[in-house]
Amino acid sequence: MKTNKAAIAILHEFENCAKRLSNGKLQSYKCPAGVWTIGWGNTFYENGSKVLEGDVITQERADTLFLRILSQFEKDVVFLLRTNVNENQFSALVSFSYNVGSDIDDDYIPEGLGDSTLLKYVNANPNDPKIRLEFAKWNKAKGKVLNGLSRRRAAEANLYFL
């Protein structure tokens, strides 16, 4: 399954290519969580290396990186799902994972989608209305509620239930 255009629009709205230099290139910046980020909200490159302070890329590289990283999150969501979901549900979960992480590890600490109550509800019943509330819980960075994250989670939940 692939991420649909509606979710890509959400990703591009909230993961905008900030910090554009006068020459048109994109420079790394710290996101609200304090992580170095570049392009479409990427915190790492195709080879797994982390984005660092002072990194610079072109818009073309940002677009290519976005598609490669998005593809990995799609694979992660497929791996984590234990039930059938529709295209909007899948795409909303990919957008969510792209932002908070896939959390595919062996612990039970909810650091992203993998160990989240959101995923547990989806896998138990993908039409459970409590899923909307689970999206909404992921609206903080460094313990502080951020309006942008609240709006993003609402957009993802709306797509999920479309």
Give the beta-strand count: 6
CATH architecture identity: Orthogonal Bundle
* Fold-level CATH name: Lysozyme
- Name the beta content range: 5-15%
Q: Helix proportion of residues, in percent?
A: 40-55%
Order of adjacent strands in the largest pleated sheet: 1-4
Q: What class, by secondary structure content?
A: mainly alpha
If you compute it from the alpha carbons, what radius of gyration comes out, rounded to the nearest whole angstrom? 15 Å
What's the CATH class, please?
Answer: Mainly Alpha
Could you tell me how far the N terminus lies from the C terminus, measured between alpha carbons in angstroms?
A: 17 Å
What's the shape? Answer: globular
Largest sheet: 2 strands, antiparallel
Q: Give the helix tally.
A: 6
- Poorly predicted runs: none
- Tally of distinct domains: 1
Query: What do the pLDDT scores average to?
Result: 94
Q: Secondary-structure element order, as H and E?
A: HEEEEHHHHEEH
Question: Describe it for me?
Answer:
Helix 1 (5-14) packs parallel to helix 3 and helix 3 packs antiparallel against helix 6 (147-160). The chain has helices spanning 5-14, 59-80, 87-100, 117-124, 130-136, 147-160; strands at residues 26-27, 29-30, 36-37, 56-57, 140-141, 144-145. With 162 residues, it is mainly alpha-helical. The chain has one domain: Lysozyme, CATH 1.10.530.40. Strands 1-4 form a two-stranded antiparallel ribbon. A two-stranded antiparallel ribbon has the order 2-3. It has a two-stranded antiparallel sheet with strand order 5-6. It is built from 6 helices and 6 strands; from the N terminus they run αββββααααββα.
